[in-house]
Amino acid sequence: MWEKEIWIAKRKSIETNSDGWQIEIFDKPKKYYLNYQPVSGMTSYLQYGEKITDVYRAFVDRTYYQGVINVGDRVYLNDGLISEDELRKLAESDNKYCENANYVVKSVLPQNYKTKIDFIKR
After folding, report:
1. Is the dihedral angle over the CA atoms 65, 63, 43, 38 positive or is it negative?
2. How far is CA 90 from CA 2, 55, 100, in A?
3. What is the bridge-based pairing of β-strands 55-61 and 74-77?
4. Bridge-partner residues for 107, per DSSP?
5. Cβ-based burial of 4 (10 A; exposed 0-12, middle 13-18, buried ≥19)
6. Is 38 helix (H, G, I), strand (E, B) or coil?
7. Is 2 exposed, middle or buried (CB count within 10 Å of its CB: 0-12, 13-18, 19+)?
8. pLDDT at 8
C-alpha cells in the first residue's frame, strides 16, 4: 500500500583504466517495491549536512533483503522530479555504468528484524 517503485542496479565490479581511474560496472537494474521516505530530523541534519532533502531512507525485511542491496549500488527512485513512466524508461535504457541513476546506496545497516538503507542523491 505504501510501497513505491524503485530500481536498483547492483555493483558488479570496479575496473581501473589506463589512466588509473576506477570505473564502476553495474548489472541491469531490477525493480523492487519499497516504502522509502525523505529523511528529516536534527540527527539527520548532523549526519548528512544541509542538503537533507537529498536523502531517502527505507526499512526493509532483513531476512529477505540481506545481501540484495549493498553500499555503492545505484538507485532510480521517484523523488518528485520525474514521473513513474520516466523512471522506468530511465532505468531500462541505462548503460552498464548507470550514468542516469539519480541516487546511490550510502549505508546498509542491519538491525534485529529490519535493515535501514539510506539513499543519497548523486
Report:
1. positive
2. 23, 20, 7
3. unpaired
4. 118
5. middle
6. strand
7. exposed
8. 96
Question: And the C-alpha cell for 98?
Answer: 548507470
Q: What is the DSSP string of 54-99?
A: GEEEEEEEHHHHTTTS-TT-EEEE--SSS-HHHHHHHHHH--TT-T
CA-to-CA dists, residue 86 to 3, 38, 53, 70, angstroms: 18, 20, 21, 25
Residue 48 is inside which H or E element, if any? helix 42-48
pLDDT in tens, 88-111: 999 999 999 999 999 999 999 998
Residue 58 has pLDDT above 90, yes or no: yes
- The C-alpha cell of 20 is what? 588509473
Residue with cell 534485529: 112
Predicted local distance difference test score (pLDDT) of residue 34: 94
